[in-house]
Amino acid sequence: MLEDKMNHTEEIPNQNQVKRSVVTASLFKHLRAISCLGGIYRSANPGEKMTRWDILKLVYVICFEIVLLTNIVFYIFATYNYAMDLRPITRLLSFFFVFLICLYLSFVYSTCLSKSFQILYVHCCKYEERYGFSDGFKKWVKKLRAIVVVVSLSIALSTLVKYLLTGVYPNVMNDTFPSSTFIEPGRSVGLSITFLGYMFMEMHWNGNYIIVNILSMLLWQELNRVQTQFKELAKSYREDTESRFNTLVIHFDVITEVLEDISNYVQHSIFTTVFLTLPVTCAIIYSILSNQVTSEELMVYSAGCVWALVCVGFGLFIDALVNLKAHGTLQYVWGLDKERFSGKGLQKVNLFVSRLTGDSIGYNIHGLFTITMPTLLGIVGTLVTYIIVVVQFKPSGATCLCNCFRNVTGSDM
Question: Is 304 part of a structural domain of the chain?
Answer without folding.
Answer: yes
